[in-house]
Amino acid sequence: MSEPNLSPPIRLLLIDDDEDEYILHRDLLAGVLRTRYLLDWAPSYGKGLEALRAGRHDAYLIDYRLGEKTGVELLRTMQAESLERAMIILTGQTDDAIDLSAMESGASDYLVKGEVNAATLERTIRYAIERQRIQSRLRFQAEILRNIHDAVFYVNRDGLVRDWNEGAARIFGLGADEMIGRSFPAICPQADGDPFSGRIIPAIRQRGVAEEVIHCRLASGRDVYIRAKVTPMSQQGEEGYVFCASDISKEKRLEGELVRISENEQRRIGQDIHDDLCSQLSGIGCMTKVLENRLKEIHSPEAGMMAGISEMVAQAGAKAREIAKGLVPTVLETQGLAGALRELAQQKREMFGVNCIAVVADEDRIERLSDSISIQLFRIAQEAVANAIKHSDAEVIEMSLRAYDGRLELRIRDDGKGMPRDRASNGMGLMTMQRRAELIEADFSVQASPGGGTYIRCIVPMVSHD
């Protein structure tokens, strides 16, 4: 014996001025065994409208002919009042114009009277309820996307905007009516080219998704920085990409200010080391040397110990001067980035015996860079060379600098033992270099594998960022 169906019944309303239709549909639904249906009846347009507004039923069967008015008018009233209902139009005969009008006005489906059996009616009701639930959920999600603080917009594969939410309008200062149909560069004009075709599409082809920090210079003159995640997506049969972007303009300005403060503090510390500590160590060195000579004159056995102390003080002074030079790269101001890289290479050759070289191609083509770019590229080179010496046992380290197509490329390559993939992506030194590259809107990449050396590449537009 089968278990009784204890699930709650599905409540339906028939809006029809013919009571015979109510009896017919009630009897048809009574023959459905797997689901319980309760059918109510509204005998007029007015009663039907009142019940539709109340929304106490799961689905509504609406006759097309309702006295002087029509069921389509009911549908349009619901549409105008933004009331979502699972509504099925009942027509007396097949009429494509009526069917199309009903579907455009919000009907979930339609049935032709006289051609309906219990199975067809039950299936149509079930599909209409499910379709209304899906549409309601999609509209709810779309409303969330339209109103969230972050920008969410959709572009086709040609880069044309097809959808644009309120968050995007707030961030970019452009409404949907201004952006739909326009290209991505129109949203985010950049001096160094189109990020959509230049960086985002290649990243998606390589990794399936792109995550980029993009600097937009709007027509209003305002600079906007966004952190965007871009994912391929198909919309209504059209291939394209959905952007989820947050405004990080304040964060970028704060980062820039923190970097400026940090560089100034490094300069101050370096200057203090040079002016105070190095001077004091130099004075101590002179005193220990004098004392060493006096001990030698009286043939004191402590003369050898004092000689060792003098040597240690001299080494400490040399190390302090090296630290001061690293903290205050004054050569950047006098000889530019190329001169600073050459001096860095010379220091590492003399101190560690490693074959460190700096190669600058077409130096006369490299325009004077802003301080922010020069300092960050120099710090990246410092970190890369220090990592190669400390961790990879490299014998040869080559730094190269070249200008091309309005860009400046810094490369650091070594022949060391390389590093595992997890460290190549998560190492603190590499993360620091990545952050420095982001500050100057540079493309940064690392290629490293065990035994294969390390290759670091940083490309920055040759424009002022001060």
Percent strand: 15-25%
CATH architecture type of the largest domain: 3-Layer(aba) Sandwich
Secondary-structure content class: alpha/beta
Number of strands: 17
Q: What's the rounded overall pLDDT mean? A: 84
How are the strands of the largest sheet arranged?
2-1-3-6-7
CATH superfamily placement of the largest domain: Response regulator
Q: How far apart are the first and last residues' alpha carbons, in Å?
A: 83 Å
Number of helices: 15
- Low-confidence parts: none
Helical fraction equals 40-55%
Summarize, please:
By secondary structure, this protein is α/β, with parallel strands linked by helices. The chain has four domains: 10-145, 3-Layer(aba) Sandwich (Rossmann fold); 149-247, 2-Layer Sandwich (Beta-Lactamase); 251-328; 335-466, Histidine kinase-like ATPase, C-terminal domain (Heat Shock Protein 90, 2-Layer Sandwich).
Explain the overall architecture.
The structure is a single chain. The chain is an alpha/beta fold and 466 residues long. The protein folds into four domains: 10-145, Rossmann fold; 149-247, Beta-Lactamase; 251-328; 335-466, Histidine kinase-like ATPase, C-terminal domain (Heat Shock Protein 90). Helix content is 50%, strand content 23%. It is built from 15 helices and 17 strands. It has helices at 19-30, 45-54, 71-80, 96-104, 118-147, 166-172, 176-179, 184-187, 195-207, 249-297, 303-327, 331-352, 371-391, 421-426, 428-439, and strands at 10-15, 37-42, 59-63, 65-66, 69-70, 87-91, 109-112, 151-156, 161-164, 210-217, 223-235, 238-247, 355-360, 396-404, 407-414, 443-448, 454-461. The strands form four sheets. A five-stranded parallel β-sheet has the order 2-1-3-6-7, sandwiched between helices. α2 packs parallel to α3 (71-80), α10 runs antiparallel to α11 (303-327) and α13 packs antiparallel against α15. The radius of gyration is 37 Å and the shape is rod-shaped. It starts with 9 loop residues before the first strand and ends in a 5-residue tail after the last strand. The mean pLDDT is 84.
